[in-house]
Design goal:
- With 652 residues, this protein is α+β, with helices and mostly antiparallel strands.
- The strands form six sheets. It has an eight-stranded mixed beta sheet with strand order 5-4-3-6-2-1-7-8, with helices on one face.
- A hairpin with a 6-residue loop joins strand 3 and strand 4.
- It is elongated, with a radius of gyration of 37 Å.
């Protein structure tokens, strides 16, 4: 008897479904792409329990004819490809004809649809690939898919699904990409009966970016619009100072299809050289429009990878587009000769408010002649009492420039003081006592002796006073004379980094956390966001107090005291990216990497100016704690023997 079996239809469909349907987000991606191909202008997505128990995708597209419903659920049935040549220029998001068959084989699926040319709609039920019913239904034009109990008949796949939160965030990540790729579609996303995303569908990419990533992210962007060799690159890129420590916020679209393109990544990195700090990457939302026959999207089942017929034109177009956007963004703002702005003096404003209040409450009194001014404070009060005259700036027709505006109270008071200095009043006569001789020489008051400068080479206190601070070389290396026979060269960054690392590791960050006066909000992509909110304890051990702020945003309430304020956000972003990419690492390895990250950012930087006192204290710690290597393995201290130096100069 032969050993080769021909699988029945149901088993074959279950195997094939695994290539298309990996998790709930895969189902949502396929169904929403079908809605877009159907010409929908409004799409609603709803999930419950991460999409495992319930998913709904409704659109106002063209709908499905009743006679096409059954064939639509047959494998390799599609309306988007007819002949072999159609594969050379695919213009639709879907084209394989596998999605509906795969989804229906591993779930309870309900379809409600009505084509525009039909008078009544249709309700179709199919479970595990088997048809249950097909009936009339009253519904508007468009299509609604309802999927329940995903993988109910494939327990092996069900047990590999992650938590509801992780699966829900994966769906959110897919929705974000679709919203950015099609700003002309009004997209509504409901998660566990709560609306978490809504785009206006006005066709403006910036509106979609605002809805997905928030106001602060949208305000940091520079517009990109460039065409080269028939390839158009449009969208937005972040300002150089807003670059992030990873590429997770870089979004690339090929003909409005989200893809992962190493060619575009390399082009952006090359274009940002000299503008963006080394080790950081700009955020972007870029759509690359080119001929459909110049790109192959039929490479991977998820359609995230593409191949170009010629990568060089794509690289050049992205490079010049980004370079041009950065150059335009760096232009200085031109100053125009508009009406000068009036600065508000708080003291003047307070005086005015009190004066108006007194005038309204006090009864009218006869006019009293003002007394002569006694001192400078009276002059200031008089000037404050005068009404502020707002004069239009005078324009010199010869120079076409704006002259100085009307003098403010501060200007007039300053002029008054200068007048007193240049035209002083005669000094009053001084009465000299009779017992003092007028021709006596005045006493000479000697100036205090200047303080002596501190010893430029202070000692590092030890039992035998054998260490002496010499100085610092290249603002990086501390030079210490150790006894009469050795010189120590200490890398201040490496030494400080190791000291902070050991403290964080010993105390697990708890003793070195500081509450922030103003909490910091950080926007992440949904995958990084999931990694953070599912492992708050990792950040807590590192000295961070982080909470979920909702919809891809976290809020930082406290951070390690060693970190400067400007390093807190980038440090958390880098940690989130690391946790997202290294989910399988054991906890101790994750914590070790995080301690490395915090200590490296918090340590004194090579090239920064340090005081001798700081360097002496650091050198003393290196000797007391016997610090030898930084957390990355680089040496902290190098010993140079006196005999070796004498050999250099030919003394021995």
């Amino acid at each position: 008897m032969g050993k080769i079996n021909i699988l029945d239809k149901h088993v074959a469909e279950l195997i094939a479904a695994g290539e298309v349907v990996e998790r709930p987000s895969s189902v949502i991606k396929e169904l929403v792409e079908n809605s877009i191909d159907a010409g929908a202008t409004a799409v609603t997505v709803e999930i419950k329990n991460g999409g495992v128990t319930f998913m709904r995708v409704a659109d106002n597209g063209s709908g499905i004819l009743r006679e096409d419903i059954r064939p639509a659920f047959v494998r390799h049935a599609t309306s988007k490809v007819r002949v072999e040549d159609d594969l050379d220029a695919i213009s639709t998001l879907g084209f394989r004809g596998e999605a509906l068959a795969s989804v229906s084989s591993v779930s309870h699926l309900e379809l409600i649809t009505k084509a525009r040319e039909e008078e009544i709609g249709t309700r179709y039920l199919i479970e595990g690939g088997e048809e249950i019913s097909l009936n009339d239904a009253g519904c508007p034009d468009g299509t609604t898919f309802i999927i329940r109990d995903l993988f109910y008949n494939v327990p092996a796949r069900m047990k590999f699904l992650k938590t509801d939160m992780a699966e829900g965030n994966a769906v959110s990540n897919v929705i974000d990409k679709i919203a950015l790729s099609h700003p002309e579609i009004a997209l509504t996303y409901i998660r566990d009966q709560k609306q978490v995303l809504h785009t206006s569908g006005d066709g403006k990419l910036l509106s979609a970016i605002y809805a997905v990533y928030g106001r602060e992210f949208a305000r940091s962007l520079l517009p990109v619009d460039y065409t080269l060799g028939g390839i158009r690159v449009s969208g937005y890129i972040s300002q150089p100072e807003k670059a992030r420590p990873n590429r997770n916020m870089q979004n690339f679209f090929i003909n409005n299809r989200y893809v992962i393109s190493k060619t575009a990544m390399a082009a952006i990195s090359e274009a940002c050289k000299g503008s963006v700090m080394i080790g950081k990457f700009p955020c972007c939302v870029l759509n690359i429009e080119l001929s459909y026959n110049a790109v192959d999207v039929n490479v991977h089942p998820t359609k995230l990878e593409v191949r170009f017929v010629n990568e060089r034109p794509v690289f050049d177009a992205v490079y010049h587009a980004v370079k041009t956007a950065l150059q335009n963004g760096e232009q200085r703002v031109e100053v125009t000769a508009n009406k000068p702005s009036v600065r508000v003096n708080p003291f003047e404003l307070a005086q005015k408010v009190f004066r108006e209040r007194d005038e309204q409450s006090a009864p009218a009194a006869p006019a009293v002649k003002k007394q002569p001014l006694k001192d400078d404070s009276d002059e200031l009060l008089r000037l404050l009492d005068e009404p502020v005259k707002e004069e239009k700036p005078a324009i010199d027709p010869q120079k076409l420039s704006v002259s100085d505006s009307a003098p403010t109270v501060a200007d007039r008071y300053k002029a008054y003081i200068e007048t007193k200095r240049t035209d002083p009043q005669p000094a009053p006569e001084v009465q000299i006592p009779d017992d003092v001789e007028q021709d006596q020489e005045p006493a000479v008051v000697s100036a205090p002796a200047p303080e002596q400068p501190a010893d430029p080479t202070p000692l590092i206190e030890t039992d035998d006073n054998s260490y002496r601070y010499i100085g610092e070389a290249f603002k990086t290396y501390i030079i210490i004379e150790k006894n009469p026979r050795e010189l120590l060269l200490i890398d201040k960054h490496a030494a400080h980094e190791r000291i902070i690392y050991e403290k964080l590791k010993k105390e697990k960050g708890s003793g070195y956390s500081q509450l922030l006066l103003t909490p910091i909000t950080v926007t992440l992509n949904k995958l990084d966001y999931t990694s953070v909110i599912s492992d708050f304890e990792v950040f807590s051990e590192a000295g961070f107090d982080i909470d979920d702020f909702g919809n891809g945003t976290i809020i930082i309430r406290s951070a390690p005291q060693y970190l400067s304020l400007e390093d807190i956000e980038s440090s958390v972003i880098e940690m989130a990216g690391y946790l997202s990419e290294n989910k399988k690492e054991i906890r101790s390895e994750k914590m070790d990497w995080i301690y490395h990250n915090v200590s490296c950012r918090a340590a004194i930087k090579g090239g920064n100016t340090s005081t001798p006192e700081e360097l002496i204290a650091l050198a003393r710690q290196v000797e007391d704690e016997d610090v030898r290597h930084c957390p990355h393995g680089r040496p902290v201290c190098v010993v140079v023997k006196k005999r070796e130096i004498e050999r250099w100069f030919g003394r021995v």
